[in-house]
Amino acid sequence: MTAYIDTPTKTLVTPENKTFAYREISTPATVPVIGLIHLSGNLDNWDPTVVDGLAQEHQLILPDYQGVGGSGGKAALTIQGMAQEIREFIHALGLKQVDLFGFSMGGFVAQEVINQEPTLIRRALLTGTGPRGGQGIGDVTKISDRSLAKAIFTFKDVKTCLFFTRTANGKQQAAKFLKRIKARQTGRDRSIGWSAYRTQLKAINKWSTESAIDFSQLDLPVLVANGDHDAMVPTKPNSYNLAKAFKNSELVIYPDAGHAGVFQFNEEFVKKANDFLR
Predict the structure, then answer these.
(1) Could you count the other beta carbons within 10 Å of the beta carbon of residue 25?
(2) CA angle, 259 as apex, 253 and 264 as ends, to 5°?
(3) By C-alpha distance, which of 133, 164, 169 is closest to 245?
């Protein structure tokens, strides 16, 4: 199996005439896993250790959102709009049912995909994320802007502050993670443009003001996972409330870990996720 850092980027044009850039890495599986990345993220922001680990047992398909990276179009104005576009992408692939792996904003989008077309989803991994209208989600713009300014001033990657704790262990894990996501040497995806980034922030802010989605009637199995100190989407109460929103859910909280807890604890998460998806 080709490692994720060597996996070529593909393109797909949907019947709605939308062009998506995506990467596919797989072990043949009946139900593929669609990965939905975080705010401002592109195909190179996935932790290759996690992707490769999940791909040992599953087919992973990881698309760029519209207006991001190699995908065409403009960034959707709402989280619901992003979800609609991801559904168009899934259907254009000819898939009848998928599993979802949403991280951060990708977890917001995954919830809207479930809400819009629940029969399309078999199982879902919702990580580093929270429910619509969740506590503190409206602060993402403020936190992101402040952290970006700090990163520019200190010549550090913004994810160092946003994704990991500031303990000695957190700083060490941040350095390891950044090394992993920068390992790809050729064919790297384009970084998000400023306009698309601000559009995504506005979409998150709007989503934070809306009522929670009622998932109580769904039997969908959901794994919710996060670090115990998420500065972006506060772990308490969001991870706990999200798990409670689904009647068939499991919650995993990783110690001394932040927003990217599932990447910090990549080996543990891969084992848990593979067991869950299996």
Answers:
(1) 23
(2) 70
(3) 133
Amino acid at 251: L
* Number of CB atoms found within 10 A of residue 64's CB: 25
Specify the pTM: 0.96
Cβ within 8 Å of residue 18, ≥6 positions away: 66, 71, 72, 73, 85, 88, 89
Which pLDDT tens digits describe the chain residue by residue (278 residues)?
899 999 999 999 999 999 999 999 987 777 999 999 999 999 999 999 999 999 999 999 999 999 999 999 999 999 999 999 999 999 999 999 999 999 999 999 999 999 999 999 999 999 999 999 999 999 999 999 888 887 777 777 888 889 999 999 999 999 999 999 999 999 999 999 999 999 999 999 999 999 999 999 999 999 999 999 999 999 999 999 999 999 999 999 999 999 999 999 999 999 999 999 98
Contact 258, 229 (CB under 8 A): yes
Dist CA 85 CA 81 (whole Å): 6
Distance CA 225, CA 128 (A): 6
Contact 33, 61 (CB under 8 A): yes
